[in-house]
Amino acid sequence: MLAPALATSTATAAPATTPSAAKGALDRYVAQEPRWKRCEADSPAEFECATVKAPLDYRVPGGKQIDLAISRLKSTAPDKRHGVLFSNPGGPGGQGLYMPLGMQERLPESARQKYDLIGFDPRGVGKSSPVSCDLEPEEEEKPLRPYKEETFDKDVAWARGVANKCEEKAGDTLPHITTRNTARDMDLIRAILGEKKISYVGYSYGTYLGAVYTQLFPGRADRFVLDSAVDPARAWRGMMQWWAEGAEPAFDRWTEWAADRSEKYDLGDTPKEVDRTLWDLVAQAEEKPIEVDGQPTTGDDIRSGMRDAVFTPVDATEAIVELKKAAADQPASTKKLAPFAESERTGTAGARAAEAPSDNQTASFWAVVCGDNSAAWSRDPESYRRDAIEDRRRYPLYGDFASNIKPCAFWDKSVEPATKVNNKVGSLVVQNEWDSQTPLPSGQALHADLRGSKMVTVLGGEGHGVYPNGNACTDGTVTDYLLTGKLPAKDVTCEATAASNEEARKNQKRDALPGSPLPERAPDRF
Asked: Does the model's pTM come out above 0.70?
């Protein structure tokens, strides 16, 4: 009874098999009975894990198989249970197997009673048949690179080299590590669990995954919370370019904030003077790198670090105050200089499953970013040069980083077209006004695409990831939806509080803990 919806949904993807043939081939996957066991020796006894099989290519369900690692925490009150609540932490490449533990800590007990919390590592990630390109550490570092005429040929060689290594190592697998297939995996897990529908909380990249699920399986989507949202039409090159576009208004806000507090911070009495302070430091560091935490910091490093920092004005201001000290060879606070530290810029932050290859996060990231929508990526290296030069002019802080060449320029063509999200499935989009990874216009775009959605906007909200943050307005709206399934009658506007913004900063800065709903993510991830 559950298999037909899984099979017929693939009809939108022009499957190689007919829906009826796919149904028969998928029946054996749906019939799997997970062998649940304690996830780890030191994990709670009630936290159970299992591994199930899925087809690598849903167009050929009788072909190669992959493992999907899944987990669960059962409802704390079975008599009040509503269903299952899936979750995804972001990425692409983020591990979600241990996410139920973090959700358990942060959801109110009333929500815990309603749901079995279901975690899973997306295909190709962590314990779900992890992919690898055999990349060296230096090939993983700085996936977003500033444009310089003298280094552009090296950037092209790096991008081509990463794509070639991925093709050589995993060319038969990577084309199928896509958001559409991960959404199909979610529906397969649903069917295996015997559930008619799923509810879902997705952060960042997880909002796109959730939106794609609603497009492929509209009848299977129950209560969907999409927190810090991706604009589906800009997946994925356009979303990277949002990082540059979205930073400019945040930069202007920061210069005003710092100027208003010039007596305390002495960065300038006007926004223009604060602006000049920053760019003078960039110029100085370009001529002679400034030492930060024992490492040379260039002007490009400062631009890259400030791209994220300006969304929290106090952090950006304190960082520049300390950078001025370092530039003058005076003692400076290493903690406050964190935005410019090497570990913040490499793009390889985040926990890794012990079983996963060392480059798994990077390999799975490029697989999705390049493979979801190859049409978004030009095959002409010179077009990236032109775009980087132009966008550096338009968006001085980060434009060239966002538009410079990436391995996707040399990636194989996508096996399916990108998903156009346009449906009336009910969902709740939640968005901070000042979000460095998914700026407010991105969340507004997803809200418009999901015509059955309502949106919660946190005015003055800082940070990437909203729920839960201790703000009664936002937390109450989301929790009520999860408990009742009733969306607000109209869009909701909440005011950020000092406490909720502080909670957001803690979420972003804390150590990467297995299961955290908002794990520490590198500044070049979603």
From this structure: yes
